[in-house]
Amino acid sequence: MSPAQHRALASLWPRYGLDFSLQPLDTAATFGREADVVIEIGCGMGETTATIAHARRDTDFLGIEVHAPGVGSLLKHAAALELSNLRVIRHDAVEVVAAMIRPAALAGVHIFFPDPWPKKRHHKRRLLKPPFVRELALRLRPGGILHVATDWEEYAQEMLATLEAEALLSNTADRFAPRPDYRPRTKFETRGLTLGHGVWDLIFRRR
Ligand SMILES: C[S@@+](CC[C@H](N)C(=O)[O-])C[C@H]1O[C@@H](n2cnc3c(N)ncnc32)[C@H](O)[C@@H]1O
To answer: What's the CATH code of the domain at 126?
Structure first.
């Protein structure tokens, strides 16, 4: 972690950080208002997360990331943009969703460029597996959006099959969706594009 990320973590955690808890999160109390809530899983260095939260001030965002330098970086972006509609949890998103997010609490779930785990023997580590997709779908309110993007074609196809098999979700597109204007290019995506990768967005709605 860079000294700046370390300082950001220490000084900005009280303002933006939420500790993992086994109690469901009271989002209205956390953000001090009743508003749509979107979670982002795996924010990375957080530029995209902060940019989206800045552009959509009417919505509250909860970033979930395990990587401490990424969390430090996200906190720096949040402070620079003086965001009041963003909080961050540094913990495994699977546990956060299970313990802290109430059913039908969310307007959206963003998962941008989840670790692709390209080797076949590592595919079991992928985040977007049917049981977790079901958990996410249950946390979305009817009409809520699950938006996933990847630069790994084979994972894109696997996720398309998984999401289309989930009865609580319906595809908003015919297979893959065009990148919506609200999603800026992420750091990981830019790296993939430099390597000649394609990009696939999947946008599903909770029935
Ligand atoms: C490939 S990076 C993409 C980061 C960012 N979204 C981007 O597009 O630049 C995937 C991120 O997901 C995070 N991550 C992976 N598994 C996670 C989990 N179970 N809970 C929270 N974060 C996770 C990793 O630490 C990493 O920062």
So the answer is: 3.40.50.150
